[in-house]
TrEMBL record:
Residues bound to NAD(+): 67-72, 101-105, 125-126, 138, 147, 165-168
Protein name: 3-dehydroquinate synthase
Cellular compartments per GO CC: cytoplasm
Alphabetical GO biological process terms: amino acid biosynthetic process; aromatic amino acid family biosynthetic process; chorismate biosynthetic process
Name of the coding gene: aroB
């Protein structure tokens, strides 16, 4: 099957290429006048396929990173800056990221800040990175206060989603990536939910047409949202704009921090989406049947829908530093119906406590 090209519009438009064996398109995305290419990847994931695609036309700098969220620190970013400087990197050179969402976040941040911005091409190797981190230009690192609190908007020059890389992805990682996919079904594209509900979860594999359609639909959702509101300044007619992509993420990020990032992001997002659906129902905004559809859809693909690993007060304190908060006021993206998102500002603390109890949490 031929590759699918999804155009992300905006001030600096770029293509997201989805298909099997698409790495041969990498040189075409780098641009002209490139002498050096820095390949940023987890140390546990050899970058051989990227190196093979680059051939001998470039001076390649190999930059291995710690695995997972451990890469997303100021210390690791500084090590990359020093390596790029020592290699004589210039503004006409390019960073290529090869790995999951943490690699994309860190590598994108390094590209955004090195020489005040160099081009970056993302080659995501996990489902989560394909449908979330690699598209949209958000970059970031973690601090002791929370996740992704330091970062920059820096759109890539292109994204290559080679579905063949998912064949070796551990099943729990593939399932976790479906958390962001199912989320897109609730906030924008209910056809995603219909596919999930009609497909045996065991059939969602790297080579299945159903998974490919889910990936393409989720990327299109994100592409349309970021094209309309790249820097999260807000939507029109009551739509939250880019904030909608954070549906479920306020609690999800709090859980991740409470778990010291040992929980997978997509798992935390699934719990967070069920939680915020409970919030909306208790606020009289969402039909209770749609709350149950949240539980059923996330649960069907194998994601958790309950959590009791931290007290409500602990998680509420973490939520208070959420990036969507304004002053002392918490803001949650909620739904009024399928694909009808809005922002609920300043929700009552006891309402939140009740919603957390509904997902299995304690006081």
């Amino acid at each position: 099957m031929s590759a699918t090209v999804i155009r992300v519009a905006g001030p600096a438009p770029y293509d997201v290429v989805v298909g099997h064996a698409v790495l041969d398109r990498l040189p075409g995305l780098l641009g002209d006048g490139v002498a050096r290419v820095a390949v940023i990847h987890p140390a546990s994931l050899p970058a051989d396929p990227v190196l093979a695609a680059l051939g001998t036309s470039y001076d390649v700098l190999d930059l291995p990173l710690p695995d997972g969220e451990a890469a997303k620190t100021a210390t690791v970013a500084a090590q990359c800056w020093e390596a790029l400087g020592a290699a004589g990197f210039t503004r006409s050179d390019v960073v290529v990221t090869y790995g999951g969402g943490a690699t994309t976040d860190l590598g994108g941040f390094v590209a955004a800040t090195c020489l005040r911005g160099v081009r970056v091409v993302h080659v995501p190797t996990t489902l989560l990175a394909m449908v979330d981190a690699a598209v949209g230009g958000k970059t970031g690192i973690n601090t002791g206060a929370g996740k992704n609190l330091v970062g920059s908007f820096h759109e890539p020059a292109g994204v290559l989603c080679d579905l063949a890389t998912l064949a070796t992805l551990p099943r729990p990682e593939l399932v976790a990536g479906l958390g962001e996919v199912v989320k897109c079904g609730f906030i924008a594209d209910p056809a995603i939910l219909e596919i999930v509900e009609a497909t045996d979860p065991a059939d969602l594999t790297a080579d299945s047409p159903q998974l490919r359609e889910l990936v393409e639909r989720a990327i299109r959702v994100k592409a349309e949202v970021v094209a309309a509101d790249l820097k999260e300044t807000g939507g029109v007619d009551g739509h939250p704009g880019r904030e909608v992509l954070n549906y479920g993420h306020t609690l999800a990020h709090a859980i991740e921090r409470s778990e010291d990032y040992a929980i997978r992001h997509g798992e935390a997002v699934a719990i967070g989406c069920v939680f915020v659906a409970e919030v909306a129902a208790r606020a009289g905004l969402l039909d209770p049947d749609l709350v149950e559809r949240h539980r059923a859809a996330f649960g069907r693909v194998g994601l958790p829908t309950t959590y009791d690993g931290a007290s409500f007060d602990t998680l509420h304190a973490h939520m208070a530093v959420d990036k969507k908060a304004r002053g002392n006021q918490l803001r949650l993206v909620v739904l009024h119906d399928l694909a009808r998102p809005a922002v609920l500002a300043g929700p009552d603390r006891e309402l939140l406590r009740a919603a957390y109890a509904a997902v299995g949490g304690g006081s």
